[in-house]
Amino acid sequence: MKIDFANLQLQYQKYKTSIDLRIHSILNKSNYILGEEVIKLEQELKNFTGAKFAITCSSGTDALLLALMAIDIQPDDEVITTPFTWISTGEMIALLKAKPVFVDIEPDTFNINAELIEKAITKKTKAIMPVSLFGQPSDLDMIQSIADKYNLKVIIDGAQSFGSTYNGKTDSNFGDISTTSFFPSKPLGCYGDGGAIFTNNDEFANKIRMLRVHGQNKRYHHQYIGIGGRLDTIQAAILLAKIQYFSDELKGRQMVAKHYTGHLSSIVQIPNIKPNKTSTWAQYTIKVKERDDLQNALKKKDIPTAVFYPLPLHLQKCFSYLNYKNGDFLISEQASREVLSLPMNSFLTTSQIDYIIDAIKEYLK
């Protein structure tokens, strides 16, 4: 049975007419940088999230960088975040010569354990950066209350969670700034790199718009040191085509996740989605002690899987200067040994999902 992990090709074939028309419209106009499609996409993103400002940019990584620059993170400042995430989260803090301060995760959600944050705060702490890992927001109310208590900023790394909700609102509306990624395999993805930044703060929005075009407040006049962080117009056109189907795709992902959960919950640890949250199911990630053996067994049955992430940030060589060691964050380290992400996309058929489930059951029996 042929199973695709993300099924981007099938998705393209379904939306091909709309996507191709929008791409060729750009080619015919040759308006490749900050064309009208970028403005239209930002309006669509505002409509979808309810955020006051949506600012597109060149990647989810650059979205984090721009957000940190907007709140004026300086060398030696500290930013509290999770060690169980993609490198960009800690990397952008370090790139600005600030210090990533890691806090361990919850064992059942893979998100930062908000109850551990307060004890990590020092006089140098300037911000908290929770990650909505695998598509589910962190405990944002508790995080915000801690931030308010200590006068800290909150940047939400929502690279995997665009379209998720917390207490009925999209996570793009929480924190001082929220970011997302449009990497091709994300729930809403373009055909290259892309990202977006959301905020309800006028000052941050104006600054971010300048920072993404080298700090310009008008052409050739630079108020800030910035970056070249614009979203290409062609990528905006692709996202404009795909966002029309996004709500239906989210429903499809929910159905796939529900099917997995109904059949796997008794044999492996499945993701726990808390009652006041919804997940975009960027990945459906189980935990199993025989992870590597199970992955190899599924591979023999042509079932693709992935491991996000095999080594937590505090044990990465690039962060060795922080002097963390093995055993400092036991839950993150255990997750890195045991997590396995199964195929997840809204186009999986019932027979395909059952084939995956049966293969897991057969191995674990």
Question: What's the topology here?
Answer:
Elements: H1 8-29, H2 36-49, E1 53-57, H3 60-70, E2 78-81, H4 88-95, E3 99-102, E4 125-129, H5 140-150, E5 153-157, E6 165-166, E7 169-170, E8 177-181, E9 195-199, H6 202-211, E10 216-218, E11 221-222, H7 233-243, H8 246-264, E12 277-278, E13 284-287, H9 291-300, H10 330-338, E14 339-342, H11 350-364
Parallel strand pairs: 2-3, 2-4, 4-5, 5-8
Antiparallel strand pairs: 1-9, 6-7, 6-12, 8-9, 10-11, 13-14
Q: Quote the distance from N terminus to C terminus.
A: 22 Å
Q: Given this structure, which CATH class of the largest domain is correct?
A: Alpha Beta
Strand content: 5-15%
Q: Which residue ranges are poorly predicted, with pLDDT under 50 across at least 5 consecutive positions?
A: none
Query: Any idea what the shape is?
Result: globular
Q: What's the SSE pattern?
A: HHEHEHEEHEEEEEHEEHHEEHHEH
Structural class: alpha/beta
Helix content: 25-40%
Mean pLDDT rating: 98
The biggest sheet, with number of strands, parallel, antiparallel or mixed sense and barrel status, is: 7 strands, mixed
Number of helices: 11
Structural domain count = 2
